[in-house]
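Intended use. Records like the one below are meant for learning the mapping from a protein sequence to its folded structure. Do not use them to infer anything beyond what is encoded.
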Amino acid sequence: MCIRDFRLVPLAASAIVALTTGCAAAGAQASSPAQPVSGPADVTVAALPAADLAGLYIAQADGLFARQGLRVTIEPIASSRAVIADQLKGQVDISAGAYIPYISAQAAGARFDILAEASTLQPDTRVLVTTGDSPIATVGGLAGKTIGVNGTNSIGTLLIGMLLTDHGVSPATVRFQTDPQGFPAMPAQLEHGKWSAAFLAEPYITLAAERYGERVLADLDQGPALNFPIDGYVATRAWVRRYPGTAAAFVRAIQAGQSLANTDSVAVQAAIAKFDKLPPTVTGVMALSGYPVGPVSEPSIQRVAQAMLQFGLLGQQYAAEAERGTLVRSMVAGGLPGFGAGGPPPGWLLDQPSRS
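Structure written out for the chain above:
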């Protein structure tokens, strides 16, 4: 059993976080007038409330979308699967969440494009949590138990299946139960005895420990899931083809946000604190994901499709397409929208606002 060490953040540190972020955002807005965009400027993004999407929240907080001429509205969701129907109806422009439901939908005939990668698994960023007094001390102790997840047939059930199998436990021996409110509600549900364990992402892992004394049973960043691709930014192909200028502007802002997320932990903490309305005692010590920058990596997303096939999240009728890589290839447009197959030109990020 792994028990995380959670340290309190001094109030002075939280003040520095707020001051630094405020100055950066103001500087970005003041020195970076909005660029014209060829397409609609208003974009709705459905997103998980998780640190995995720090690039998105930084881009919003620091005015990176505004600099690209976009007005972005972020709508919180419990899981990416929950928003697919609305996206296909045109009610949501872009979603930010796990790849799994989109790969499933693509196999079934829908047409989505992955605009950019959002996050990869890193230590302590996706875990299984138990209550502080739980008798379960090992992964093997989960056999026959119920595990709470933010969505069934999702990244949570896949990562847990990989963990159980790697520890000699059949995934068929556990029951998964979805909480429709997602990560924000799950620590309390676990504490009230709804499940034996829960799948959580940061910052809600840290919140679970701070508020309820819940413990990390197992870090999911291990074995075959090490550095696993988690989330991406996805739009329907119809939307991308109809509004290529808007898609390109969105990706440029996201890439700048991703770059800041990789190099500035204070920016991540402040953005998550703002959008998830959490205190610095949580956001100041949360573990951070990896935030890929550049063209979407086909081999990386292919790992997801192959794992889905192995653990039954993708039907065997799609096995040939998944194994050949044509399924994933159909979702990767060959490069960042607006940049071409070679990706962004050297030094393109120099045009983005600095955080001085």
